[in-house]
Amino acid sequence: MKKDVVCLILSYPPLNSENNGTRRDWIRDVLRITQKAREALYRRKKVNVPELSSEMDKLLSRQIHDIKVHVPSDILVNMCNGLSPGYQAPPKAMLDRCTDDFMIRQILQYIQIPEIQRIVISEVNDKNFLVRLKNFSPIRRMFCRVIRVDVRFCSTVKDIEDRIIEQLGFSNSDRGEAEQLLRSQNFLILLDDFHPWIENLHHLGNGWWNSNNTQKIVLASFQFYPGVPMDLEIRRNHHLLSWELFFRNVGEVLHSSTIQKLAVHVLRQCSGHLRATVLMARALKGVKNVRIWQHALRVLGFQPTLLHVQDRIMINALIFILGHLGSAAKECIKYCAFYLEMEGTDKVDLLERWMKEDLTGTLGKGEQIVQHLVDAHLLESFANGESVQMQNEIRKELVKFYKVEMNPTLLVELDGRGLTEAPENEAWEEANEMSLMNNKFSKLPDNPNCPKLRVLFLQGNHRLRVISSSFFQCMPILQILHLSETRIKFLPPSFFKLVQLRKFFLRSCELFMELPTEIGELCHLEVLDLDGTEIINLPAAVGKLTNLTRLKLSFCAQTSHCRKDNHSNTIIPQNVISNLLQLKQLSIDVNPEDERWNAALKYIVKEVCCLKQLLFLKLHLPEVLLLNDLWDVASSLNLSCMRFRFIVGRHQKRIISRLSHEYAIRFEEQETCLKYLNGEGIPTGIKVVLQHATALFLDRHLTVTSLSEFGIENMKNLKFCVLSECDEIQTILDADNDRNGVFPSLAYLELHYMKNLRSIWKGQSSQMPSLSNLKVLALHTCPKLDTIFTFSLLIELNSLEELVVEDCPEINSIVTQEVLAEGVGPPQEWYLPKLKKLSLHYLPKLASISGGLAIAPELEWLSFYDCPNLKILQLEELSTCKLKVITGEADWWNELKWYESELFQPPNLDDIFVPIERYTDLRTQLVEINDQLQAQKKKTEPSHQSDVLVPSIEFEAGTSSKQKQVAA
Predict the structure, then answer these.
(1) Tens digit of pLDDT for each residue in 341-357?
(2) 933 within 8 A of 912, measured Cβ to Cβ
(3) Residue-by-residue DSSP string for 173-240
(4) Could you read off the pLDDT of 728-770 as tens digits, one per residue?
(5) Closest among 337, 424, 445, 343 to 389, alpha carbons compared
(6) How many whole angstroms separate alpha carbon 685 and alpha carbon 705?
(7) Does residue 869 contact residue 934 with C-beta atoms inside 8 Å?
């Protein structure tokens, strides 16, 4: 009950906008504990009830502390105890629409949390509520299929499921087909008038869930039945909270039926905003004049031109209140907004400061104003009335209001609100900066008058396709313009009137194909960012932009259609780059199949070498020989002082790219990157670049048999290395060919589709490479790999934090047993001392993790999948007290046995085991599990670990709680 009350109150503004990410993590933690308690109840599983209760109390108290700032303690206690409200409510019909709005808002907020699958709504007294919810446009956008089913005559879970399947148009004989349809879609099922005494309600729809989709079941009842096993319960009567707050603060005036009607309208205009509700109630306390109430409604409904204020409701409430304060009180509250200490101050001290500033004439007058401001809820008294303070939320809005009042230039902030219409012309006239990004604008004003506008952010408006021809006509001093991630295809003529423009961003505008020659008229331009566009060629006029310091370009391949449209056959005209002598950053993305790029490269490289101030360079060079031109005698480039992204080699067409987009992003994040494609041999130019590179992506090299052939001395700065489809490579580090086998900086090594790879390292133990900084090793699809770690190599890996081995069918253990039998050196107590994450997938011959060797005392994550030969584990291989999650197939886990050990007793690991579904994408499931784990880690305070395995995160296990069998 208490957690549902807290969740309900957290759905109200301003609480619903504070730390949304943290709040969602909190809700997930609450659901985790609830699920564990439910498992104990329904599966008769033993749990430590006092420990669970204590953990839940800690979670709830964290949020209740914030709630009590807005909701009095006695109201909160009554709600948690299920007591009826103790206030005079208006006739039911008056508040129905208001409470329905608040319930729908809560449903919309929590329905987006994946862990909340089943919601029950009680005390629904309107048969049309679910109809309204079903037809609500955000619901329709969120779900492919919304089904409303009357289940009043259903007495079992199967009855309910049969009614749902029937509503879908299937017969019971087609049940499997219906369930398959549900699993494949985003669905919302609304069950009207259900009976809560139905057994096993928590099993409802168990076979329909698919973590890749948004799937919810909402049950509605006309009565309140405590204890229904759902993820979230919403009581309609609890959504009368804002009415109770209003009633408490406005006083006897609500006994009038006329005022009651107006009060309900005020509540709707406040949208349940807890702070604004109290402020308006205090401002209208004792007011019987209907016109004042009507004026309050007009002010609350005002769409302010003070668009920089994010909270329209709060600022409108404050405007109404300030309008009814006397002039002296207005000046005093303004002083408090700017100068009153955050922690508050002694009341007498504040009165003396007001007098010193000539805001009040006497202490008595100041005393009256303080009391009036406390009564209005603008100030709060504490320490038995001897001190006063201002709530931060009120201070923040007042400061914004007064800054606009004092400053003729205006900051308009309307970003990320999902608005479909841009502000009216009046909002633009005084604005100095407008932040309108991440909305849903499809149209902008035709010709706004913006004489003071210097900054305009419009990025992320994905529906914006066309800008009117005169839109920029009256923006004479605009200096920064952001149109990235829009759908515009061309720039309007008025754009080229922006002669003061300094920075222009047009990133990721995939429909933008032509940059007009008029761009050359914007002579003050310093940044021109067209990264992610599809322009066909660069106009020669760009060479006139001699103040450019940053130029980012993306070209599409020229098609026959473009040639017919008389587009230039030259992708970048000669002498354009060489004119831009102030350039510090140059990035050019091209289609590798564009012949125009190959034709222009010779002179482009030569011009790039003239840029003495260049600090960043991104280029695609199809021929290795072009690398040599970048640092010949005449070149001004110094690779040791630059960041670069070089793609060297010719692309080959592939039906499907085997490397995921995720790895490409990781590669791009590195400081200095070299991607070498379809190479042969080891050209000198590649070696030179490698000496300065921190990241190497070697893709489809045709001849090298080991990475060592590139020269270890050339890779001393290498931190990140990905090898993919290099069919001739048999080992990564070959000490027989390079006696100086040292990788002092390498932290990340990832291998994909290495057809003939047999080992990571080859050579004598006396020639061991240094991999002391290696943190991540990932091996994907290496069909002949049979050796990962020899005993000697294992000793070197003291920094390894993550190991991934996937689709390597010859691996039977991550440590080669034959080498261990040689007894090289004295054994250590632990190996891989920092390993936290171990993933072993699609390894049909895997019979042991480490052959009984004690590894990974810090291990937190252990993932298995499709390792059918792994039937028995030695406890030394899991001798960690830090383990938080184990994943694998449920049937494999249930059959798994353990070897007896004198040192370790087999702990019950069921509590941290998470089953992997066979017919759901493995990567998707692992990402979801990892996200939960990381969220838990961020919130959990460090605690002393005991000498037994203590699970610190819980998931819906769905497994037996029996102890693992111990093999004799």
Answers:
(1) 877 888 888 998 898 88
(2) no
(3) GGHHHHHHHHHTS-EEEEEES--TT-TTGGGTTGGG--TTS-EEEEEE-SS--TT---SEEEEGGGGG
(4) 999 998 766 555 556 788 999 999 999 999 998 876 544 555 6
(5) 343
(6) 19
(7) no
